[in-house]
Amino acid sequence: MSAALPEFEFVKTAACRDARVNNCPEIATNVPGVVALRDSNRPDIVVTYTAAEWADLSAAIKGGEFDLSM
Prior knowledge:
By secondary structure, the protein is α+β, with helices and mostly antiparallel strands. It has one helix and four strands. The protein has one helix at 51-62, and strands at 11-12, 25-28, 34-39, 42-50. Strands 1-2-3-4 form a four-stranded antiparallel β-sheet. A hairpin with a 5-residue loop joins strand 2 (25-28) and strand 3 (34-39). The longest helix is centred in the last third of the chain and has 12 residues, at 51-62. The termini are far apart.
């Protein structure tokens, strides 16, 4: 038997709240110790991170590690 997923409350970034924008990342931080991420066009696929993993990923993104414009 698999454990049920917690009830995530997903939100979009401010830029994606415009009705003309679609296919946005959605983030849920309402479950303690877990950050959940999904694509608004594929809401059935949810990726979860621990708070520490999310902090590491965020730092790498802010640091340009995943900059595709280079």
